[in-house]
Fold:
Amino acid sequence: MKFTDTGTLVNWQLDDIHIIQPLHDKAGGGSRGGVYLCIPNFEELSPPFALKHGEYRITPCETDLPHQKNLTAPDETNWGSVEVITDWQEQTEANSKTLTVSTRIRAVSETALVRPGFHPYFSISPNSFIDIADTHIEVSALPHDSLRVHHANSPAAPIKLSTADYVVTMTCDISPLSAGLALAFGIWSDKKAEYVCIEPIIGKQPGPDGLPMPLTLQQDEELVMVFTIRAERLIFAS
Structure:
């Protein structure tokens, strides 16, 4: 696995299939693709999006695993300070591959507000679709470059993406599972570039904007998340 100096996974393949859209610059600045964490992920951003990627994506770290970062609130915000340790592992089997990302967030200030997210960009093909519990989403029906929020039935509920070449399932294990914990999936697609972003967002029960509200961690309190992506190649009879 290859990472940038801020800990973004550049690419993830199953044989010759790009499961994750490779990280690339976009026209007009910025980048798309890859996989990264969003912490604190609760600051406002102008429409059409209602959330910001947070400090994690722009804070440098060693490229060796595990990644370790200390994030401190900018002067204009008051979300506190946290220590983040993230490890990435992959396992390859016949026609399948699993990516496991474990993240430990510990409050190092008296209190810290966190609403973490996980941000993978999946490559798609025409007629790709997403299943969340009883909700079936045709990627082609998603508006271009506009976030849609879908709530999971439970924090452990899986999500499934089906394409012409592969099927991927993603789960999120959260500890501790406190009362009122909520998991939502922020989904948006850039069909011109043929990818869809499916972002688990973790917090308390949703606020007025439909997104989970930030969690409050007391000093030395920890939140542990394990994101698991399993990709299986579709094998067709000749």
